[in-house]
Amino acid sequence: MSYTKLTREQLAARVAKDIPEGAYVNLGIGLPTMVANHFAAGFEVFLQSENGLLGMGPAPSKGDEDYDLINAGKQPVTLLPGGSFFHSADSFAMMRAGHLDIAVLGAFQVAANGDLANWHTGSKDDIPAVGGAMDLAVGAKQTWVMMEHLTKSGESKLVSRCSYPITGVNCVSRIYTDLAVIDVTPDGFRLVEAVAGLSCDALSALSNIAILE
Amino acid sequence: MISKISPSVSAALADVPHGATIMVGGFGGAGMPNELIDGLLEQGASDLTIVANNAGNAEFGLAALLKAGRVRKVICSFPRQVDSYVFDALYRAGKIDLELVPQGNLAERIRAAGAGIGGFFTQVGFGTELAKANGVAKETREINGEMYVLESPIHADVALIKAERGDRWGNLTYRMTARNFGPVMAMAAKTTIASVHELCELGEISPEHVITPGIFVQRVVKIARAVTVASGVKAS
User: Fold this and answer.
1) Mutation target vs A (from B81, B128, B216; most A CBs, 10 A cutoff)
2) Is A155 a catalytic residue?
């Protein structure tokens, strides 16, 4: 049977569907940022940005950019009525102490025990940069990963052990990919749902690791 | 009459010594005290350790200081940027030391210094390469069944921060996300130098709205908004 991968927009919409109203959420740089475009009008979710704002709104219209009001990716954003500003130590206290309900992060690899690798390839020539990745991974009540299932060369990003330097130990609870939604359980990866036409066995084979049904 | 207002950037920076540890506020362009960094470049202090979130963009501000060979070490969370080529080249050539710190640990280590805390245990970084100092694993401890890493405070000789409004007692407010590291860096440095866009009379800043109380600030220098690179005004 054939199957079709989710587009990036479809994947973002799928993640958005699982975020409950009233949640305090940090969306990581890159793919996770797109989740913000998929909440229904009037649906209230509190978006936090590590550089010190809560109640982040959409991008400003052209000409209204204010470079004192940016997100973690250094792009201009807006603040919703009711939003607030705070300093970096308070911002990371929100993560570290679990005030933040959900962090949605990109990943290079996720291991079956929930280890996350998303900050450094470990290559000698690669300039290491971590930003808030480790704080978010460990601090939020739930850490979700949103990523393409396979690398560009077709290797699985679901692994038994991360080969890249890890960001956090046993911190990922759920993974959303363009092929499936997968929980990280004490028994390893467990399938929640896969795209139509893709069986759990086929997904396991493709992932080169056991995914429980 | 007490006045912490400096007549100029050069006067505010005159006594920064060689070898100083200098905190620099800002996240990306927001809150980056570019004029103070330019002043430091002109002032001439070298062999500096810079504590900041990023390590400079293009060839202005922090990157210019790096390019001039004045910085020995950078303590930061995110040196890699699309235009961080000055840092990248120095790092690859082994001409600059990097202490990479997760951003929240960086903020809290700075806050700890400012709050007189001798160290703290955090779960962030446990089990990773960043739970090492100079290649040696940092002390860890199990607390209530979870593993924590002992992190130490980061003190500085000087903090350069960008605020929005200030008065002669050193009370400060910030503008939007330009606040970021400013308040904690102000607390952690022996001498905090704040640039402001607006000088206020005492009492003009509502005491309810003061973000950094003047006790944490030693010098205030006014920078006209028009000449500010990251001024927070609309993009031109």
Assistant:
1) B128
2) no
- Tens-place pLDDT, residues A132-173: 999 999 999 999 999 999 999 999 999 999 999 999 999 999
Given pLDDT bands bounded at 50, 70 and 90, which one contains residue B228?
very low
Measure the CA angle with vertex A152, ends A148 and A155; round to 5°.
80
Domain boundaries, chain B: 9-118+155-226, 119-152
Question: Which A residues, 80 through 109, put their C-beta within 8 Å of a C-beta on chain B?
Answer: 85-89, 91-93, 95-96
Q: Which CATH architecture has domain B9-118+155-226?
A: 3-Layer(aba) Sandwich (3.40)
Give the closest-approach CA distance of A163 to chain B in angstroms. Answer: 13
Residues in chain B with CB shorter than 8 Å from the CB of A60 are none
Nearest partner of A195 among A209, A210, A211, A176, judged by Cα: A176
- When pLDDT is averaged across residues B16-27 and rounded to a whole number, the result is 98
Q: Do A167 and B128 touch (CB under 8 A)?
A: yes
B104 and A96 within 8 Å at the Cβ level: the answer is yes
Helix (H, G, I), strand (E, B) or coil at A89: helix
How high does pLDDT run on average in chain A? 96
* pLDDT digit string, tens, across residues B28-39: 889 999 999 999
User: What is d(CA B203, CA A132) in angstroms, rounded to the nearest whole number?
Assistant: 37
Distances (CA, A) of A185 to A10, A169, B30, B211: 25, 14, 41, 44
Q: Closest by alpha carbon to A82, among A42, A61, A53, A43?
A: A53
CATH number of this structure's domain A8-207, picked from the four choices 3.30.470.10, 3.40.50.10490, 3.40.50.1000, 3.40.1080.10: 3.40.1080.10
Query: Who's near B171: CB < 8 A, 6+ residues apart?
Result: B205, B210, B212, B213, B214, B217
Among the partner residues B53, B111, B124, nearest to A134 by beta-carbon distance: B124
Q: Is the pLDDT of residue B229 over 60?
A: no
State chain B's maximal CA–CA distance in angstroms.
55
| B72, two tokens | 């020995």
Which parts of chain A sit beneath pLDDT 50? none
CA-based nearest residue in chain A for residue B127: A169
The ranges assigned to domains in chain A are 8-207
Confidence tier at B226 by pLDDT (50, 70, 90): low
Partners of A133 on chain B (C-beta within 8 Å) are: 102
